[in-house]
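Data availability (excerpt). The following record was deposited with the supplementary files.
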Amino acid sequence: MKTTIKKILTALLVLLFAGSFVGLGVWQLQRAQDMQDYEKQPADTTVYPLLSKTSADGIVPPESIGRLVTTSGHYIATFKAPNQKDGSGAVADWEVGLLQNDVDTAILVVRGLWSERLSSPEIVMATEVEVTGTLMPHQNDDRAANTAQQLSRLDSSLLVSSTDAQLFDGFILATAESSRSGAVDRTRISAPKLTSGVPGFYWQHISYVVVWWFMALLVLWLPFYRPNQTRRETKV
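Predicted structure:
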């Protein structure tokens, strides 16, 4: 009776471990498929109102990152953002404006290269500007020292003490600006290529599938492995 119960418990334990390994393999297979589906998605070229994709009282939602948005207002401050890297890998200093909206909120806008900051003299503090660009999350790593005229990283939390406006998380990487004078003609910063929210690489996930399923087969095989019997047969 005890032997039967022991065999049943052993079988259940083996099935539990094997099922867990199979499940982990299926999970990794789904993650690999998710990566492929993300890469096959057509680019969304729709331009959304900023407030339809994020708000000033929270972080940028993951599904809103990389979307084209538009908003309007006037610049209340200008900053230098040193040592920034664009989508092609080029490192340069950027001009960043703090755009205040009509509803007393503000968001950082990357306008272009710092070296071209004087290329649009018609845009002054009182000028109403419409901005279109890519919505990006805030940066976490400092690229330089933080001063009154310079941002160490693109992060609105650095400006909390310098303005009464409620600040949006993240920033807009401007692709176009326009005012009553017309479109602002200047070099724009290329957006970095966004990757899937699933970490790792496609073939890395596939290799994990093979490993987990191999472990499942190994667990199923172990109860039938009899090392002592093998040694006795060798001696005979």
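Summary of structural features: Residues 2-40+197-235 form one domain.
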